[in-house]
UniProtKB/TrEMBL annotation:
Disordered: annotated span: 134-160
Protein name as it appears in the record: EamA-like transporter family protein
Subcellular location: Cell membrane
Keywords recorded for this protein, A-Z: Cell inner membrane, Cell membrane, Lipid A biosynthesis, Lipid biosynthesis, Lipid metabolism, Lipopolysaccharide biosynthesis, Membrane, Transmembrane, Transmembrane helix
EamA domain boundaries: 23-114
Major localization listed first in the record, in broad terms: membrane
Stretches that traverse the bilayer: 42-60, 72-90, 96-114
InterPro entries membership: EamA_dom, EmrE-like, Small_drug/metabolite_transptr
Membrane topology term: Multi-pass membrane protein
Organism: Rhizobium miluonense
Amino acid sequence: MPMRLSWLAVPALNTLFQFFIKLGAEQMHSQSPEVWLWQALSSYWILAAIAVEIVTFFIWMNVLAELDLSRAFPLSGISYVLIIATGWFIFDERVVALQIIGSGLILTGVWLIAGANVETGTKVETAAKVETETKAEAGDRRDLDVGQRKELRTGTGKDR
């Protein structure tokens, strides 16, 4: 299955959520829980973060409907890299070499995990083909559909 741009929306929106939370947190100064809660609920940055998180939730539900969890979840790891970049570009945070190396390792890991899951799809197809051949060899052709029976009769299979 080819990658869709909407799959990358989740890490991008997670990064935007963290950006808004950071800006909202910088505005809050109260030690009292009641005042702190009022400040949080009246902050445009916090409200924007909540809105982004709601949108992210629905996009994530769609991603999970299309992908296996083991293939979808590593995409969230991209957020770590985007957060470091956002901290550097927007908040003028210092980035050290280990963060850059770690970011490269995270991106490599996401790529490897996503690629490993693609290979498992061929195993399923191979298992189905072996099952079909086993049925044909056993002479149990009743379970084969018309196309499979014709393929066996004429010898026009992919591996012939």
